UniProtKB/TrEMBL annotation, chain B:
The chain crosses the membrane at residues 17-37, 66-83, 95-113, 119-138, 150-174, 194-216, 248-271, 283-309, 321-341. Belongs to the binding-protein-dependent transport system permease family. LivHM subfamily. The lineage of its organism: Bacteria, Pseudomonadati, Pseudomonadota, Alphaproteobacteria, Hyphomicrobiales. It comes from Bradyrhizobium jicamae. The keyword Disulfide bond does not apply. Keywords: Amino-acid transport, Cell membrane, Membrane, Transmembrane, Transmembrane helix, Transport. Its main location: membrane. It is a multi-pass membrane protein. This is Branched-chain amino acid ABC transporter permease. The keyword Transmembrane helix applies.
Length: 243, 346
């Protein structure tokens, strides 16, 4: 099976500073892939560049289409969707309007079924559908951001730190839903600092350090890797330093 | 002063205020969606008014040729920016909008223009011409620099204003023009006499405000425009083209400007440069509304109209001074009330 998203030898710079160097990555259909790494490793930069928010050097293709000439809006139309770290909701509009706009590019009939699905995944959003997005709690805003992205019926959902700043019980809920997405036929590319939770639901993982992938493989293997365990999972093995 | 004069002045103020309200709403709309402070709004008013007035005398206004010229430039820009991924559909769409639409308009105008053309046709033509100019103005002057700062956009807006005003002199000459009234009917209520024209002003203003409210509250496009205003990146991430939102905002603003012009040109003589002053008064209302609030802008516009009416009665030499001085206390209050805001970086 060919990869849904394939990124090869990508470099991304902010002016003269190269934030991502020579990174290659693949996500197949029905797969959850996670990128873990410390703050500032370049994970968010990579997602933003794949979405078209930042320019990248290298090859990036999605569903067989070269992404280079496409704007953000065109990438959305090919079935690529990003839930950014800051969520970027329409704060002064209500939950239902936010969701409705998530389906901006698709037909009304498809949007109606999408809405049903999103409300089934996030019953909380249905309860709050007339509330303004800006007045929701952090967890609800994250749910709304994911719901809005799902309204466009994406093939690949890229999630940037969905658990950031949320209560553990909500984090568990969000990771459970990410797991359910795979069953619904949506691939997920998940960037997380909460490596433990991410590795538990992911099929494969990449470990990013200072703009490069230092390790990749099946999530199970990564989780049991000593260096990863020491650096990101908080376990310490005999004779190993935590750094 | 007696009650009759008071009522007259109020009536006059409200009629003018209604026009300022329309213009103020357009300014708020454009600023919210594109961050452009639309200085050329006044030119949309003059172009609409004077194109209508010229059409009414059976002449073809130069604005229609300008629309064709701007369309050609817009088409060239579309091709240039899409040169890396030129697709037939894109070219066809761009050609239809930028070439076929204004050329069609030109052809129709030449065909139907004459002293006996029905008023409704003249109004429709004037509206469409100005709408095309507004649309292409965004494409040519603002879309390529949409991501720059508010200041750069403002400078571009001033440039557009000067260019359009100069072209206005070429098209309409230095002499003022008046257009035929929409209706010669009049209603008398007590000491007040409402002309059909002023009733049309009230009616259309209210219709536009209600229409805009429905558009933004209940249509997908309207909501997408609001979303662009609230969060540009968020809008792009759901696939809303911010350039399209900008075009729609300019289209609405130019049509609102043209309507305002067509409404006032039977009441006052308009010159090629009158629009600027009228637009500025809408701008004052928009500033009082903080460039964000539609209802506040509408109320402020009525206030501006009333202040103008009374000051032209008491101190007509200082009419404009008094009106524009209104903005000072508002700015002082706003700057005291609001914390310093740094412009967003993106």
């Amino acid at each position: 099976m060919s990869a849904l998203l394939s990124v090869a030898d990508v470099h991304i710079s902010y002016g003269k500073v190269e934030a991502v160097r020579g990174v290659s990555l693949e996500v197949a259909g029905n797969e959850i892939v996670t990128i873990i790494g410390a703050n500032g490793a370049g994970k968010t930069t990579l997602l933003n560049a794949i979405m078209g928010i930042l320019p990248l050097k290298g090859r990036a293709a999605f569903a067989g289409t070269d992404l280079a000439p496409l704007d953000i809006e065109d990438r959305v139309a090919t079935g690529l969707s990003l839930v950014p770290e800051h969520r970027e909701l329409f704060a002064s509009m209500n939950v239902e309007d936010n969701l409705e706009l998530g389906a901006f590019r698709i037909s009304k009939a498809t949007a109606a079924t999408s809405l049903e699905k999103v409300y089934a995944l996030f019953p909380r959003l249905k309860e709050r559908r007339k509330q303004l997005a800006g007045t929701l709690s952090g967890g609800e805003q994250q749910m709304l951001a994911m719901g809005r992205a799902l309204m466009g019926a994406p093939k690949l959902l890229m999630l940037d730190e969905p658990s950031l700043g949320l209560a553990p019980i909500i984090v568990a809920d969000i990771f459970r839903i990410v797991g359910e997405l795979r069953a619904a036929g949506v691939s997920v590319l998940l960037v997380e600092q909460n490596a433990q939770a991410a590795l538990r639901i992911a099929d494969r993982a990449y470990v990013m350090e200072l703009g490069e992938f230092v390790l990749s493989g099946a999530a199970k293997d990564i989780a049991s890797n000593e260096r990863v365990a020491a650096s990101y999972l908080g376990f310490q093995h005999e004779g190993e330093s935590a750094i | 002063m007696n009650t009759t004069i008071l009522l007259f002045l109020l009536q006059d103020g409200i009629t003018n205020g209604a026009i300022y309200a329309l213009l103020g709403l357009a300014l708020v709309l454009v600023f919210a969606v594109t961050r452009v402070i639309l200085i050329p709004q006044g030119e949309f008013v003059t172009y609409g008014a004077l194109s209508y007035a010229m059409l009414a005398t059976g002449q073809v206004p130069g604005t229609v040729q300008l629309a064709v010229g701007m369309g050609l430039v817009a088409f060239a820009l579309d091709l240039f920016f899409a040169r890396k991924a030129l697709r037939a559909r894109l070219v066809a769409r761009s050609a239809a909008l930028n070439i076929a639409f204004p050329v069609g308009l030109l052809a129709v105008t030449y065909k139907v223009a004459g002293p006996t053309t029905p008023m409704a046709v003249n109004i429709a033509l004037a509206l469409l011409i100005v709408a095309a100019i507004g649309l292409f103005l965004y494409r040519i002057a603002f879309q390529p620099i949409a991501h720059t700062s508010v200041l750069v956009l403002l400078i571009a807006a001033v440039g557009c204003h000067l260019a359009l005003q100069g072209l206005g002199l070429v098209f309409f000459g230095a002499e003022g023009l008046r257009g035929p009234a929409l209706s010669s009917a009049a209603v008398t209520a007590g000491p007040l006499r409402f002309t059909g024209q002023s009733l049309a002003v009230y009616g259309l203003t209210i219709a536009f405000i209600v229409g805009l409210w429905l558009f933004f509250g209940y249509t997908k496009t309207g909501k997408a425009l609001r979303a662009t205003a609230v969060n540009r990146l968020g809008a792009r991430l759901v696939g809303i083209r911010t350039s399209l939102s900008g075009q729609i905002a300019f289209l609405l603003a130019s049509m609102i400007g043209a309507i305002s012009g067509i409404l006032i040109v039977p009441i006052t003589t308009l010159y090629y440069d009158t629009g600027f002053l009228i637009g500025l008064k809408g701008f004052i209302a928009a500033i009082i509304g903080g460039l964000v609030s539609y209802p506040l802008t509408a109320i402020a516009a009525i206030l501006v109209g009333i202040v103008e009416a009374f000051s032209s009665f008491y101190a007509s030499n200082f009419k404009e001074v008094i009106v524009f001085t209104l903005i000072l206390p508002v700015l002082v209050l706003r700057s005291l009330a609001a914390p310093a805001v740094e412009e967003e970086k993106d």
